[in-house]
Specification:
Vcp-like ATPase, Chain A, domain 2; 313 residues; elongated; 2 domains; 27% strand; Rossmann fold
Length: 313
Amino acid sequence: MVRILSATVTTSPEGPPFETGDQVQLTDAKGRMHTITLQEGQRFHTEKGGIEHDILIGAPEGSLVTSSKGTAYLALRPLLHDFVMSMPRGATIIYPKDAALIVAFADIGPGARVLEAGAGSGALTCWLLRSVTGTGTLTSVEKRPDFAQIAQRNVTKYFRGTPENWMLHTADLVELAPAGPFDRVILDMLNPWDMLEVVEGCLVPGGVLCVYVATTTQLSRVVETLRAAGGWTEPKSSETMQRGWHVEGLAVRPDHRMVGHTGFLMFTRRLAPGVVAPTKRRRPAKGAYGEDYDGPRVTDRRDTTTGNPVEDV
């Protein structure tokens, strides 16, 4: 018979204390947040009083500090989603709910070679750099110089320096035409359908293409362009809604606010040169390609079993 003995743990694990240069998120009782960068001899000022940076330097994460007017603040290092939601913006950011799906559904992990076109303010850039780790690479392309500067500052601030495995180009993707090879490509721009030739030239067979667009018309055009081009798996499209919940005893209900539509995500995979995916057997909805439709179209789709054309209606 084996006796299982219980033991009382009297010590607690300790993480690194706050240091000069660390970013610290200060949160009051009402949930209002302030993010500061610790510097010796500096003082953080707010309408609720001031806080000396020196009080936080050397303190453990999760400490409680009190301002000169008696307001208590919880001090923690900001998580990445806290950072991207509060960082300076030029272009609208890709929200954490969408960035998480991009990383998961595009299967972006250590060692991946990733091309990001449309860096914007650098929010997704931070998520991608953390995912590929130091063994992978990220090449970001941003057409607008003002957006590129904001992305550079945000990424440098979060990683406390420019990551060695990151290259940021201020250029048009078509003009730059990076040779690659890349394992994953993410397009966040107004006209991703115009970039498919560039993507085909740098994305390896089996690689994943992810497209982020804001409107249904953009989504329809990029999906139909991919189908007409051939050489890609059937595109999969989705959007994600994020709704928080209020939990207090038996009062459990949805929050009054939620993060609704931010954009559509579309994923597809590159096939080997000359390969065309099997024809989708399901007929489109009646009127899907009616008189009002003027977008790209597969002109001659054939059943891979019989070789006969597949009718749309």
